[in-house]
Task: inverse folding
């Protein structure tokens, strides 16, 4: 490591989170500086002649011109290694628990603590031996960090050579576990490494792999209708109170990812508190272990310094990439990327940069693109050969709930899945309030940009995956989507002439879509049974309702009055069966009951040859 | 108040409420200063920016009458106020000077009015149900201790009466302790402020309340301090004296307008409707000062009031507020015209912390289902009403007519109640069941069967009839 001599400058101007200083000639953009007597953390964002400007990640109250500024020669880096999981960090990677222990219930400035605990000794089990050749990204051993996740220790970038010695046993992240020799150079490797957060961690050239497998979320409207692939990107925009946070919490809880990174970016303190309180008590449906064991939380609440809001996103995504590089499927949720964009706007304003749309800097689209670009399923560098994926899901909070604004528009350009939240659905407490007509998962050919092409590829693959699991899935899904589309048209007619005046074949469309909305699409996050719905059950429910719709339509076609169908007592049950703790069994039972009832109706009206479902 | 620190004479420029002082040294960002004009009036000011040899200050207390020939004394710290238990029962202006003829608060315990963010790791998730005695709130928008739940209103609607009723009736059941009230008025008319003070007096709440008044004719820039002073006091009461505090901030729209004025004076790039891009962060430093802290017995519940300019929910002030607070209670002009009090439109309203505060052992086991069903049915009723406007009531299906009837009953019997009527949560839920029984039982899709059997009037009557 190159150690630079202390370089000291002086503050000349302070305006909010942005300060100006002079006196360090070789200062570089992106360098971390320590500002003022308390050594507040800042990052150099502009250099102009002999002066430079830094954004400060802590409250700047009381800073005075003339106070010192120290260059550190470092960039804003994430400390990576065992101890990330089951932890809650602030926007620059400091554990909130430690800050609390040092300072009490309020966050005050100037706290300097490491991301990774220094007092814990981890049991390191090597997977390489003396004499092995190692290169960046190689797995050299493992640490069972939590019951759910085995942390793979990787050779940091920039180090290669021969293993001179390696030690098994209990060590802290500061202690060397391995020595790499390369000619006359020696590198001591510990279990921790550093990575500059604004730089994507590399993967093999041509290492991007096609997106093929869905991230299973247990949320019906997502898995069945608008799935997201492992390694894909999704945007979930919506006005306040439409259900972004609850959905992201649901995804963090129930996704079949190995590791979850959840970033609370400029949102509520109580929401982070909720995660911290709830997750340790909830069990991962795939491993049966407490959810916190696979989770990393990053919190910059809305009242914390705004510069650290900007960095929180990069911290999170760097941690996500690091676990991806271990060969894991990682899911990252960011709530809300709008606050991140606003933080950029605020800093840009203080720099008096020329604003583009709505005061946002002209580089906003680039930043958004770079962020979502860090998602993907990739072949990661190093031995043994492995793949990993990073899925990124970003909430967007458009002003006034109107999607026609810069952050939503640019996010939709760079994400493959769009879950459109709808205030009207939220007002009638239909949750998740994902509008089934406006949302899409990778609409084939909808947008003529290159990403759309690759997305239409993965769309096909995911649906293929479903079809292999459940024969007929594609057909059922399509019928359901068509039904919902037709229902919207019928509804608009009904709004003018009243439902009672509609012909029977249209009324059955309304009824069937009502059943689908209430019994399938609506899924309460807070229902013990229904909060998570495994995909086998999703398929059974879908089949139940679509079979009902098809048979009922046929009967009506052949002369059965709509009111007769409407009076079937099973309709009510279809809307509720999702919450039956007996799961699929209850659905099977109900479908038999419906079959019986349909046969009865057919007999009543002397209709023969009606086939009910399969 | 002891004036310490550096003093300078003369400023270079006065621009609105901004002063530019040159030749200064050793002045810190965000520090407070006192400006003593030729008129002998002392004004407060705050440092918005410092550079080598200059400082930009924002003057509180009105710039009218200021000349460049003034004395500027820097205090050496951000704005702090003295706190002690003597604040209870007192009234202050927007600079925390007593206006009730009582003595000033003397204490060595001085606190920065800007506060500091609560460490999320030190928060306790709020879950104690507060019964306000108002059905629309208790039944469908339940408030919990430590929540921040604003009222979105319009001018002319009875938000003051609603909030006064809440202040009067709010209790946590099973606990005798009453809420301490901290009331911050920002740009209110004198009679509005007097209404509250009267209310507090009549209900005997005055000695456990603290009032901070910045009235319509008081300097607008002081409004930027008023809520922060109030919340500093509230935090002290909640987390030092361990009281349960209800902070009422009215009207946040006036606050935001003062912020816009200041931003315009600084020639900052505006975001929507001229409000600065940092309005969200700024409001958050106010609204996030609510909650419960680990290891402390007290709590701080916040109910800000704001009037939506033009009745527009998407105006930046209600919009950004809704993005920060834990829900919103929306008052509606149409309901008010119909004579419904409180005119709460529950559909766009929301309490995000409701679910943690209700249910078995807290309110009643059927509470959540009943509230979900009421939302769903009322929404359908409102839709039927809209349809009836087009096709006439006769054009509705029998089902739609039932929903229409339900919506009327919901507004007249459930939402509507007396200003001095204090309903228990059981009473609220019973009324809910009464009106839900207008609908066929097969429509109650959001209520678990066990609760239908337990609480539906049909079954209850049967159960109570002797065999
Ligand atoms: N899936 C769901 N199941 C049940 N209730 C839900 C669901 N999603 C949202 N809600 C309800 O809606 C409320 C608001 O949801 P949420 O907090 O997620 O909104 P948001 O979009 O994140 O709003 P904001 O932008 O203000 O943060 C929740 O408190 C909850 O009551
Ligand atoms: Mg949210």
Result:
């Amino acid at each position: 490591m190159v150690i630079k001599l202390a370089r000291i400058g002086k503050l000349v101007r302070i305006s909010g989170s942005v300060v100006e200083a002079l006196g360090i000639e070789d200062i570089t953009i992106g360098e971390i500086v320590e500002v003022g007597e308390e050594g507040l953390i800042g990052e150099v964002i502009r250099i102009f002649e002999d002066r430079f400007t830094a954004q400060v990640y802590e409250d700047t109250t009381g800073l005075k011109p003339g106070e010192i500024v120290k260059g550190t020669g470092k960039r804003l880096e994430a400390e990576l290694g065992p101890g990330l999981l089951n932890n809650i960090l602030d926007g620059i990677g400091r554990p909130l628990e430690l800050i609390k222990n040092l300072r009490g219930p309020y966050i005050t400035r100037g706290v300097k603590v490491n991301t990774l605990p220094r007092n814990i000794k981890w049991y390191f089990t090597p997977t390489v031996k003396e004499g092995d050749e190692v290169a960046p990204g190689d797995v050299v051993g493992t640490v069972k960090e939590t019951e759910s996740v085995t942390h793979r220790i990787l050779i940091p970038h920039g180090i290669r050579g021969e293993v001179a010695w390696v030690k098994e046993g209990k060590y802290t992240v500061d202690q060397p576990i391995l020595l790499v020799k390369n000619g006359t150079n020696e590198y001591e490797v510990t279990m921790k490494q550093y990575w500059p957060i604004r730089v994507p961690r590399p993967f093999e050239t041509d290492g991007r792999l096609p997106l093929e497998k869905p991230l299973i979320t247990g949320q019906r409207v997502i898995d069945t209708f608008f799935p997201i692939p492992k390694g894909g990107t999704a945007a979930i925009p919506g006005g306040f109170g439409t259900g972004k946070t609850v959905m992201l919490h649901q995804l963090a809880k129930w996704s079949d990812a190995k590791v979850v990174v959840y970033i609370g970016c400029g949102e509520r303190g109580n929401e982070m508190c909720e995660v911290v309180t709830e997750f340790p008590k909830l069990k991962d449906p795939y491993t049966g272990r407490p959810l916190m064991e696979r989770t990393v939380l990053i919190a910059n609440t809305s009242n914390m310094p705004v510069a650290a809001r900007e960095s929180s996103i990069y911290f999170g995504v760097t941690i996500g990439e690091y676990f991806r590089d271990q060969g894991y499927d990682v899911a990252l949720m960011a709530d809300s990327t709008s606050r991140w964009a606003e933080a950029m706007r605020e800093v840009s304003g203080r720099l008096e940069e020329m604003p583009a749309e709505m005061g946002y800097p002209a580089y906003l689209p680039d930043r958004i693109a770079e962020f979502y670009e860090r998602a993907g399923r990739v072949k990661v560098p190093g031995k043994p050969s492995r793949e990993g994926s990073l899925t990124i899901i970003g909430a967007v909070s458009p002003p006034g709930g109107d999607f026609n604004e810069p952050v939503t528009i640019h996010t939709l350009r760079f994400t493959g899945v769009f879950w459109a939240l709808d205030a009207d659905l939220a007002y009638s407490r239909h949750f998740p309030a994902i509008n089934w007509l406006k949302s899409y998962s990778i609409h084939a050919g909808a947008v003529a940009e290159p990403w759309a092409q690759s997305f239409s590829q993965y769309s096909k693959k995911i649906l293929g995956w479903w079809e292999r699991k459940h024969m007929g899935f594609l057909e059922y899904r399509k019928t359901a989507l068509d039904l919902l589309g037709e229902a919207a048209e019928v509804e608009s007619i009904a709004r003018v002439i009243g439902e009672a005046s509609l012909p029977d074949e249209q009324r059955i469309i309304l009824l069937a879509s009502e059943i689908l909305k209430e019994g399938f699409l609506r899924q309460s996050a807070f229902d013990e049974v229904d909060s998570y719905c495994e995909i086998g059950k999703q398929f059974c429910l879908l089949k139940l309702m679509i079979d009902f719709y098809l048979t009922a339509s046929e009967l009506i076609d052949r002369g059965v009055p709509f009111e007769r169908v409407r009076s079937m007592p099973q309709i009510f049950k279809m809307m509720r069966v999702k919450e039956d703790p007996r799961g699929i069994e209850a659905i099977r039972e109900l479908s038999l009951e419906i079959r019986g009832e349909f046969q009865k109706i057919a007999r009543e009206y002397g209709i023969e040859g009606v086939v009910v479902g399969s | 108040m002891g004036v310490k620190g550096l003093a300078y004479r003369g400023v270079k420029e006065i621009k609105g409420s901004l002063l530019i002082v040159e030749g200064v040294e050793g002045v810190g960002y965000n520090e407070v200063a006192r400006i003593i004009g030729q008129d002998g009036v002392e004004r407060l000011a705050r440092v918005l920016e410092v550079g080598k040899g200059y400082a930009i200050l924002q003057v509180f207390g009105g710039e009218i009458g200021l000349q460049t020939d003034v004395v500027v004394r820097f205090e050496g710290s951000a704005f702090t106020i003295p706190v002690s238990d003597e604040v209870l029962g007192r009234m202050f202006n927007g600079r925390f000077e007593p206006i009730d003829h009582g003595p000033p608060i003397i204490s060595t315990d001085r606190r920065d009015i800007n506060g500091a963010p609560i460490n999320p790791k030190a928060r306790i998730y709020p879950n104690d149900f507060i019964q306000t005695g108002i059905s629309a709130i208790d039944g469908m928008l339940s408030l919990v201790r430590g929540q921040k739940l604003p009222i979105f209103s319009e001018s002319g609607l009875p938000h003051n009466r609603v909030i006064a009723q809440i202040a009067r009736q709010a209790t946590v059941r099973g606990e005798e302790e009453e809420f301490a009230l901290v009331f911050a008025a920002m740009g209110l008319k004198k009679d509005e402020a007097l209404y509250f003070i009267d209310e507090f007096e009549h209900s005997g709440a005055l000695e456990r309340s603290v009032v901070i008044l910045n009235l319509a004719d008081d300097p607008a820039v002081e409004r930027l301090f008023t809520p922060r002073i109030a919340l500093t006091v509230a935090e002290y009461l909640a987390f030092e004296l361990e009281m349960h505090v209800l902070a009422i901030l009215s009207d946040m729209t006036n606050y935001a307008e003062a912020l816009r004025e200041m931003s315009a004076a600084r020639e900052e790039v505006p975001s929507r409707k001229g409000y600065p891009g940092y309005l969200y962060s700024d409001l958050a430093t106010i609204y996030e000062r609510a909650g419960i802290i680990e290891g402390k017995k007290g709590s701080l519940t916040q109910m800000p009031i704001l009037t939506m300019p033009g009745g527009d929910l998407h105006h930046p002030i209600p919009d950004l507020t809704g993005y920060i607070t834990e829900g919103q209670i929306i008052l509606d002009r149409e309901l008010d015209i119909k004579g419904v009090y409180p005119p709460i439109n529950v559909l766009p309203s929301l309490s995000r912390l409701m679910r943690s505060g209700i249910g078995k052992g807290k309110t009643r086991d059927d509470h959540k289902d009943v509230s979900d069903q009421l939302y769903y049915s009322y929404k359908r009723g409102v839709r039927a009403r809209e349809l009836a406007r087009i096709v006439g009531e006769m054009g509705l299906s029998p089902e739609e007519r039932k929903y229409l009837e339900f919506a009327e009953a919901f507004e007249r019997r459930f939402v509507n109640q007396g200003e001095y009527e204090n309903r228990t949560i059981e009473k609220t839920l019973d009324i809910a069941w009464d009106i839900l029984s207008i609908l066929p039982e097969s429509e109650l899709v959001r209520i678990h069967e066990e609760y239908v059997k337990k609480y539906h009037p049909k079954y209850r009557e049967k159960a109570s009839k002797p065999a």
Summary: The radius of gyration of chain B is 25 Å. Chain B has a mean pLDDT of 91. Residues 146 and 291 of chain B are 4 Å apart (CA to CA). The longest helix of chain B spans residues 367-391.
